[in-house]
Amino acid sequence: MIETTGTATSQPSAHTKPTPVPPTMRAVIQRTYGSADTLSVETVPVPDIGPHQVLVSVRAAGIDRGVWHLMTGLPYLVRLAGFGLTRPKNPTPGLDVAGRVVAVGSAVTRFAVGDEVFGIANGSLAEYALADQTKLAPKPENIGFEEAAVATVSGITALQALTDVGRLAPGHRVLVIGASGGVGSYAVQLAKALGATVTGVAGGTKTELVRLLGADRVIDYRGEHEYLDGGDHYDLIIDTGGRNPLRRLRRALDPGGTLVIVGGEGGNRLTGGIGRQIGAVLWSPLVSQRLTMFISEEHHRWIDRLARHLADGSVVPAIGRRYRLDQASTAIDDLAAGRAQGKSVIVIG
Ligand SMILES: NC(=O)c1ccc[n+]([C@@H]2O[C@H](COP(=O)([O-])OP(=O)(O)OC[C@H]3O[C@@H](n4cnc5c(N)ncnc54)[C@H](OP(=O)(O)O)[C@@H]3O)[C@@H](O)[C@H]2O)c1
Q1: How many angstroms separate the alpha carbon of residue 127 from the centre of ligand 1?
Q2: Atom 11 in ligand 1: residue holding the nearest Cα
Q3: Which residue from 183, 207, 228, 250 puts its CA 20 to 30 A from 31's CA?
Q4: Which residues have CB under 6 Å of ligand 1?
């Protein structure tokens, strides 16, 4: 079931009585890179807080493709990027988080105990998670913890893809490939909110979600293989799935248009097929179109901006499925196998 409404559960932090932090917590633990079978739920010490960190009592955690990459250590480039060469540096997976602040480091200025927050943590698949204060924002009061927990990683990526990278202007024709996925489901809604005409590409029954998200037109890539063959042209293409070759994507792009490659699964084990992104950067100066890629910046200025869209209702997180903490491995498997749509959430508190 796709939920399109949030629940108001916020309390002003001033009225919140701090609860003592126990010495231990339940957490998903992973000691080696591998499949979801390598995950187990264990009782471990609550992590020690650093000066710039916030300890969050986790109410819900979101699952995204990044969690799968950090679990498997694939492509190997992930390991070289500093996440641990032979095993994960952080034994608890999970990035997206929403919950209540239960402790703050000595240098934290942005949050106080009792605040309801959302953002990106170091290991959100646990009852307590540490997050850098720069990667959290106050949770909008009109949405619940589950909605907030699935917002940040995908939402700020979509926002950056459309704005700073894609330079979207009102009236632009935007094509979102992978529109039923994590990043895509936010890209469709944000592009509409920013005044674009949006075409969303998804597969089979997932096209229904893309309609619900407000796309002006929906293409089922399983039936309409020729959708990139030049019949329609777009000012901006946001590519999040399917690994279409550059030459096909360029055919559907206006001569002055912009392609933003967010990602796409598959490719080889070493680089994940980052060749498309490298090709885009190399080709771009030689053609009239802008061909770009980027790595999402994880900073609260983006989370704050996303929060404004969540608060005014122009963006509503599309929760596909809910799981318990001990079902985290199933949630990750479902995402990797294409059984998820929108965002999956682990409900903890
Ligand atoms: N650059 C960055 O900073 C950044 C940040 C976040 C994510 N990413 C990357 O961006 C990609 C998308 O992430 P995500 O979290 O949105 O993943 P996701 O939730 O799995 O969404 C990917 C979507 O792509 C669709 N898709 C698969 N094959 C397709 C095809 N042939 N044609 C059109 N659509 C197709 C899938 O739909 P079906 O199930 O219907 O096939 C799915 O909805 C991933 O590779 C991720 O690693 C990059």
Answers
A1: 28
A2: 263
A3: 183
A4: 64-65, 154, 157, 177-178, 180-184, 201-203, 206, 221, 240-242, 262-265, 294-296, 335, 338
The string of pLDDT tens digits covering residues 189-204 is: 999 999 999 999 999 9
Q: Under a CB-based contact definition with an 8 Å cutoff, are residues 257 and 233 in contact?
A: yes
Q: For the chain, where are the E strands, in sequence order?
A: 24-30, 39-45, 53-63, 96-104, 116-120, 128-132, 136-138, 173-177, 197-202, 217-220, 234-239, 253-261, 290-293, 319-324, 343-347
What is the domain class of 13-151+317-347 according to CATH?
Answer: alpha beta
At 306-333, the pLDDT tens digits run 999 999 999 999 999 999 999 999 999 9
Length of the chain: 349
CATH, domain range 153-293:
3.40.50.720
pLDDT tens digits, 227-265: 999 899 999 999 999 999 999 999 999 999 999 999 988
Reported as half-sphere exposure (CB side, CA atoms, 13 A), residue 172 has a value of: 27
For the CA of 203, the nearest atom of ligand 1: 40
Helix (H) or strand (E) holding 152: helix 152-160
Domain ranges within the chain, ordered by starting residue: 13-151+317-347, 153-293
Distances (CA, A) of 94 to 61, 266, 310, 345: 7, 21, 22, 11
Residue 153 token pair: 């990683």
- Which of 221-225's residues contact partners 24+ apart within 8 Å by CB, and which partners? 221/177
